[in-house]
Design brief:
Length: 515
């Protein structure tokens, strides 16, 4: 039976009733009314009946006043209770999606810790949206908010709303009670496909995905907070491996995360101390057998003498928001080095995909060229196909700024992305770099040979220079020259080396000697 607790106004009424009853019983007990009658008799010349009438009326009015006052008080108390409830709700919910927030989740975890009797088992899903930043940047925050609300509704249609939490940004958590032995990967995939369903806002289609990680309570942690951290860790691994993946937590993921955290910390220090420097690999004109420039490749040598490859630290720099600083530092240094080369040599510099969605990139690059004094036509920027697809609108704006200033644009790792050939006609590329995976196998693989032949023909048709990457064998070089490939790059022609080791004329004469 639930206990009913009286409100304060009700207590007040009860108090007054008690006083009234006490006075009544006292007057009854001591016969006060008789004493009053006698008093009136004795003083019949006084206008006591009028005084008593006035007393009665004022008593009655007092009663009405008290009733009204009690009603007002009761309303005020109700209002305060409502306001308190609202404040509590706001503190524990996300006002945009109306889902419970991190604070609510923390309180549930704390409660679960104290309630040791519960035998319930849970799966915790951590969900992070793929492509949400693009929606916010390209379509504005209104669309971003609409997307978050729709995601919240879609999750709430799969799970009870009180079990879906928005932790902030595009991160959600779902607590799912396990009954029996549910297929949690399948459940994770249902989350992915619910979020991946097409969105259309004001006629604009929004393409969204989700990375999902999950962990089990109590198997993956003694306390719920730890299980949530583990499911986050699994989600992070899923995100790193691509879009729309579901990953269960395994303890080795923590080592990966710890390694990443360590690399990120070391990277910050390395950037601050300018320890990441460009190495240079020659780009060779295959018709004239002479060096026409160098590609700058970032090299990070740690204090222990270990080299961390760019494929490992560039993504960390991107995720940690360090890529702008790192690129500015490397480009400034590479441009300064390039000033000491003969004036016909070109500096080729790599941009990572994420940078092409930064509208100010073009301006920053041109400022560095201006500061150092390197003419724009001596610089070529390498971008990948995926970089252009990721954010096509901004990529075009950035590339146009640079091309108009005279900077060359090369399409790097051609053949490994997902873009269609229409990319080639949409952008004004000066160069296409055939990925080294084609060059590695084209001699033994007839089809690859035909692909390379076709790309070289395409380049000739479009007026675009073709570079072959990863030339390691003399026979590869010979075949590429026979096919009419314009430029070559690879260990055979020169490995990436620090500035002190690349006296351009020495490398050039070595290439001429070998031919
Ligand atoms: P990439 O731009 O395609 O660079 C060519 C990669 O192939 C370089 O690897 C180079 O050392 C390697 N390579 C060159 N010739 C040969 C060869 O004959 N055989 C083999 N097996 N490999 C060869 P690296 O230096 O490890 O760079 C890897 C990738 O990291 C680069 O691919 C580029 O996408 C990225 N990267 C490098 N430096 C930077 C940078 O400063 N900024 C950005 N955003 N990305 C960079
Ligand atoms: Mg490159
Ligand atoms: Mg490449």
């Amino acid at each position: 039976m639930p206990r009913i607790r009286p409100t304060r106004p009700q207590l007040e009424i009860l108090g007054w009733l008690a006083i009234f009853l006490l006075l009544f019983s006292l007057s009854w007990r001591f016969q006060w009314h008789e004493e009053l009658d006698e008093f009136i008799e004795r003083h019949h010349n006084y206008p006591l009946d009028h005084a008593l009438l006035a007393l009665n009326i004022s008593g009655f009015l007092g009663l009405i006043y008290s009733a009204l006052r009690i009603r007002d008080l009761s309303r005020e108390v109700d209002r305060r209770l409502q306001a308190e409830k609202h404040v509590d709700w706001i503190a524990c919910h996300d006002t945009l999606t109306e889902l419970p927030n991190r604070r609510f989740l923390d309180s549930i975890c704390a409660q679960a810790m104290t309630d040791q009797r519960s035998q319930d088992t849970y799966a915790v899903f951590s969900i992070d949206l793929d492509g949400f930043k693009k929606v916010n940047d390209l379509l504005g925050h209104d669309h971003g908010d609409a997307v978050l609300k729709t995601v919240a509704q879609r999750l709430s249609s799969l799970f009870p709303q009180e079990n879906v939490f928005r932790l902030g940004g595009d991160e959600f958590v779902v607590l799912s009670r396990r009954i029996g032995n549910p297929d949690l990967v399948a459940l994770g995939n249902r989350i992915v496909s619910a979020i991946g369903k097409p969105f259309t806002f004001n006629g604009v289609a929004v393409d969204l995905g989700a990375s999902v990680g999950f962990a089990l309570y109590p198997e993956d942690g003694d306390e719920p907070g730890q299980v949530i951290r583990h499911s986050d860790c699994a989600m992070y691994v899923a995100k790193k491996q691509g879009r729309n993946l579901v990953k269960p937590f395994v303890p080795s993921m923590q080592d990966e995360l710890a390694k990443r955290v360590r690399i990120e910390g070391d990277l910050r220090v390395a950037i601050r101390k300018a320890e990441i420097i460009p190495y240079y690999q020659p780009l060779v004109d295959l018709k004239e057998n002479k060096i026409i420039g160098f590609e700058a490749l970032a090299r990070w040598k740690t204090a222990s003498g270990e080299f961390i490859p760019p494929n490992e630290f560039i993504p960390v720099a991107e995720e940690a928001g360090l890529i702008v600083e790192l690129t500015d530092q490397l480009l400034r240094r590479a441009c300064t080095d390039a000033l000491s080369w003969p004036s016909e040599l070109v500096l080729s510099f790599n941009l990572s995909p994420i940078q092409l969605s930064d509208r100010l990139l073009g301006l920053r690059i041109l400022k560095i060229l201006g500061d150092v004094g390197l003419p724009a036509h001596r610089v070529e920027l390498e971008v990948t196909e995926s970089a252009i697809i990721q954010d096509a609108v901004t990529a075009r704006i950035v590339l146009d700024d640079l091309v108009n200033a005279g900077v060359g644009i090369a399409l790097d790792d051609f053949g490994t992305g997902y873009s269609s050939l229409s990319q080639l006609s949409n952008y004004r590329f000066d160069k296409i770099k055939i990925d080294r995976s084609f060059v590695a196998s084209f001699e033994s693989n007839d089809k690859q040979d035909k692909v390379i032949k076709a790309i070289i023909a395409l380049g000739a048709g479009l007026g675009v220079t073709i570079t072959a990457e990863g030339i390691e064998e003399e026979s590869q070089l010979q075949r590429l020259q026979d096919l009419g490939c314009d430029i070559g790059q690879g260990y055979l022609l020169g490995r990436p080396a620090p500035i002190e080791e690349i006296a351009a004329d020495q490398v050039g004469s070595r290439i001429r000697q070998r031919r």
